[in-house]
Design a protein that fits this description.
Length: about 200
Amino acid sequence: MLLWQNCTPHPKARQLKNGDLLFVTAKETGLSGAINNVTQKQKEASFDHIGIVEKENNHWYVLHAAPKGGSQKQDLTSFLKDQSNDGQKVMIYRLKSDYQKSVPAALKKAESMLGKPYNFNYILDENSYYCSDYIERTFRDNKIFKLEPMTFIDPKTGHTNEFWTEFYRKKNLAVPEGEPGCNPNGLAASEKLERVGEL
C-alpha cells in the first residue's frame, strides 16, 4: 500500500467525499447480465458492483468485495482501470446529509471485514461476502440499507432465470429464491442516497 502514497491523486477524485459509494454499470452478458436481469430497478442505470471510498494519507482507496481478491482495499486508480477495461462506467452515490454521520463507523466496519474471501454462492454467510453484502454490512449498525427477499425470476417469463437455474445446479444448491440478501441495484434505489455523477 505504501507504494501508492506518493502517487498523483486521481484527477476526478476532487468530487469524492469519504464514504461515497461507487456503483459500476452492468454488462449485458454472463454473471453481470444475469444479476441485472433479475434485479434492475431503474431504466436509466443498472449496476452489478459496488464499493465504498476512503481517503487515507491524501490518497483514495475503494473498499469492496470482488471475485478476484475477496474483500479488499484497492487503490482508486487501479479500481477504475479494472472497470474501464470492461467498458463499464462508475457512478458516484452519496448518503444524504441526514445519514452522513454513519460514515466513520461504516468505514471502520469495512476495514474490519477486509481479507475475507468472496461469496460465490450469493447466500449470506459470516465468513465470505459478495459486493453489496459487504456494503450493506458496513452500514448495518446504522440501518442504512435493508436486506430483502432475493429473487431469481426473469420478469419477462415469470420463471427462474435459466442462468441461475444452471448456476445453482452446478453447485448442488437450491436456488435461494426468497432468502434474505441484497444487490447493487437495490442499494442504488435507496432513498437515503443521492446520485452525484460519473467518476
